[in-house]
Amino acid sequence: MARTFLYTLLAALPLLACFAFAGLLGKTQDLSQTGATISRTDQETDGAHMLVMQKRELRLMALGCRASLPLDMRLAAAMGIADHAAIAPALGGVCVAGYWPIHEEADPRPLMDALRVGGAELCLPAVVGEDLEFRRLHPDSELVAAGFGTKAPKDGVVLPDVLLVPLAAFDGEGGRIGYGRGFYDRALASLSKEKQVFTIGVAFACQRVGNVPMEAHDRYLDAMVTEDGFEVYSEAFKRFLQQRT
Asked: Residue ranges per domain, the chain?
């Protein structure tokens, strides 16, 4: 009887295999459709992840170069940056947002002073929640803690026309890599709803990289200043400066 059952089972194997193959084919068709959807999603996710990783690598490389600069070179670079403030007269009466330098950032204060002498009004950013608030700066302003080690006046909120922007890395077309928290992205998006606003990146020349991978929400700098010189990228900012000279 056992032998008869075995023979019956062996005889049925081709039929069972057909059923199994048919079931597997049906599942394979379903999975192939699902797989196509997942593949497209994965490609988009992988692309975004790759951009993030590329930015992270460039950020670390540029910040490492910045951190390696000795103090005397930083001081000389800050004065060199101020020496390129030929735009100062064109920004007379314009509200310019500087920033309070932290860590190894290029110090914009000599440049800010040159802009003030040229007639620009100055302000400094303060971190309020997840956003930046810009407060008018006077020579006698009392400065208080403004988040992340920065300082700013206690009050006097204004909407700047031009922002001096700190950064981790930049390229020769105005691409910028920040520190990854999006403060300036959100500030620019908010300010742009109220008025035309321009950005000038401030950094050491060693923070320049070959090409910054830009995402859809990223905004190019209008100009860039380092100890090596001043570059204007956007035609709109060029026209703005020309109209004021």
From this structure: 67-243
Phi, psi of 48 (to 5 degrees): -65, -40
Spatial distance between the Cα atoms of 82 and 226, rounded to a whole number of angstroms: 9
Q: What is the DSSP string of 27-74?
A: HHHHHHHHHHHHHHHHHHHHHHHHHHHHHHHHHHHHHHHHHTS-HHHH
User: By C-alpha distance, which of 181, 162, 81 is closest to 122?
Assistant: 162
pLDDT digits (tens, 9 = 90+) for 105-129: 999 999 999 999 999 999 999 999 9
Q: What is the pTM of this model?
A: 0.80
Model confidence at 196: pLDDT above 70: yes
Which H helix or E strand runs over 187? helix 183-192
CATH number assigned to the domain covering 67-243: 3.40.50.10420
